[in-house]
Amino acid sequence: MNSNYLFTEKQKFTQWWIWLILLGINGMFLYGIYKQFFLKEVFGDKPMSDAGLLLMFLFTLVITLSFIIMRLETKIDNEGIHVRLFPLHVNFKFFKWDEIEKAYIRKYNPIVEFGGWGLRYGFKGMAYNVSGNKGLQLEFKNGKKLLIGTNRAEELEQILYSLN
Asked: In this model, does residue 3 exceed pLDDT 70?
């Protein structure tokens, strides 16, 4: 960790229901593969081809693996804010303090305001979020807005206060 960072946070998807859905879908396709490939019985009323079943399983597996490795990383220093949603962003996006009009912590509704979690676009701007309902709201001098989700709102608020 860079000692120049005033704040660092790494977040992952922790919602139990997301994992339940992903494991359920993967389990269903695995069962279908077992049934069609090993028991030589059709899976379902309108069965897929073996190749289609295998491709769908691989597709859902890739989605599940992406949720496993996905993480939101936020770093704040005296120069600005560094954020990335890995693996969608390999490099950090950097926002200089002099580009930012306002920065504050706020409570938000991820479903209503942004349509869920992840890299989202909503009527209140863009959001990087993976869990919770609190975030660092950035309002830029050019009128754009960005919300960065946080699970350490109080600590982040103290950092923002110390920078002013």
From this structure: no
Instruction: Go through 68-78 and write b for each residue having 16 or more CB atoms within 10 A of its CB, e for each that does not.
Output: eebebbbbbbe
Query: Quick one: residue 18, left, alpha or beta (phi over 0 = left, psi -120 to 50 = alpha)?
Result: alpha
Domain 72-163 = CATH 2.70.70: no
Rounding to the nearest 10 degrees, give the CA dihedral for residues 97, 147, 91, 78: 20
> Mean pLDDT of all residues in the chain?
91
CA dihedral of 76, 78, 81, 84, whole degrees rounded to 10: -60
pLDDT one-digit tens code per residue, 87-112: 889 999 999 999 999 999 999 999 88
Q: What's residue 2's pLDDT? A: 53
ω into 87 cis (within 30 of 0): yes
